[in-house]
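Q: Entry one of two.
A:
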Amino acid sequence: MDPAGREGVTPGGHNETMKVFISSVVGSFEPFRAAAAEAIETLGHRVLRSEDFPALAGTPQQACLAAVREADVVALLLGDRYGPVQESGLSATHEEYQEARESRPVLVFIEDGITPEPNQQRFIDEVEAWATGHVREAFSSPEDLRAKVTRALHEHELALSSGLVDPAEMEERAIAMLPRPSGFGGNPQIILAVVGGPHQQVLRPAELEDPELAKNVQREALFGDHAVLDASHGTEVRIDGTELTLSQGDGFVTVDQTGSVMVGQPPRRAVTRSVAELPALIEEDITDALVRAVRFAGWVLGLIDPSHRFTHVALVAHLASAGYLPWRTRAEHQASPNAGQVAMGSQDPTVTLTPPTKHRQALTHDPDRIAEDLVALLRRTRTP
């Protein structure tokens, strides 16, 4: 047992039988609960659910909350119904979620194509906004749910076998990837560094040198849906120690053997600018660049770690060689392109999220929100 008294993962990282609590409304959701239970049992784990609880002293909801505290993992199944409100003002499922979210992994499965009740929509919004992040999947049928619960639990097992996620260590690694501050030298760049956890090697040296890897990364970086390099520029591809690097005059991509990804882009894509126009950092352009970089990093991880050995990522944004360029919105710049107030903050600011880690799926599910938060933090370092 772990220090909390639960059976589960030994300190050495070897998986034992996990206890998985199924949380959802019960009425009309029985086929989905049965599908989730089948997936859990197929992997050799123990199902905890209200249907199986014996008659005990106390209320059924007290028994469910006790089972949440006993569980190693909670599978949260959300449909359109919120369920009866308890004395707390929340539904039983909502209470179970709040009991679990800060103390154990929550695997969230949301029924596709539904119109949630107002209370249920607020509940779903709360789950999706929770800062620590959860596995989140949509499902359309009991069979689809069974497959996705099986996959999510398997990925959780793989993560446990690789060791624990250490947010502080991951943040340090992401910051260590960044180039040294260069002040006024060189062209301005917005740089995003993304590292995965638990820390491990995902590419062997021979795999890093495989020309097919470089070709795939280069094709996506230049021509993908979220291209981060300029297809009209020449690109140099090289191996630097444990890193694969694609570089251009004003941009670069780096992928290393531990699955870390770094993307550097000019703050503004090529534009026609009048001679008298004041150079500036345009907030919307930086946001767009970070969204592209986040999505690209998610794509790279999908390519090099398809079995999801990484469960979490840490992201760091860095504004390099910006000097005292003013920070402006596009509307502010268009209204007054020839004048502006110079920035008085750090010349090369680095910002991280709080907490520094997010679930890996956030790279594809939440890139806009991640970029928005990083830009807000960068803005604070640039405005007087």
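Q: Entry two of two.
A:
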Amino acid sequence: MSIVQIELTDAEREALETLAREKGKSAQDILKEALGEVLHDASSFDWKGAIARGEGLWAHRDDLPDFDELRRESDRDLWGRD
């Protein structure tokens, strides 16, 4: 097991201590539980599904630049080897 030091603002520390008292737990236990939830959520996040759900999001926008032209501009030879 490792020990990790974090910095909290006074308001964060007070809120943590209040929550710990209300839950009848230590501040350390509250932080461990919160971190466990964040790490679990991050590891189970369906990023492929999120990308798929965003498909066509900008399809009907007419205020966007020409992305093909932007790509062509970025493909130019920056080192002058053409």
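A: Comment on entry two: The helical segments are 10-23, 27-43, 47-53, 67-74. Residues 13 and 48 are 37 Å apart (CA to CA).
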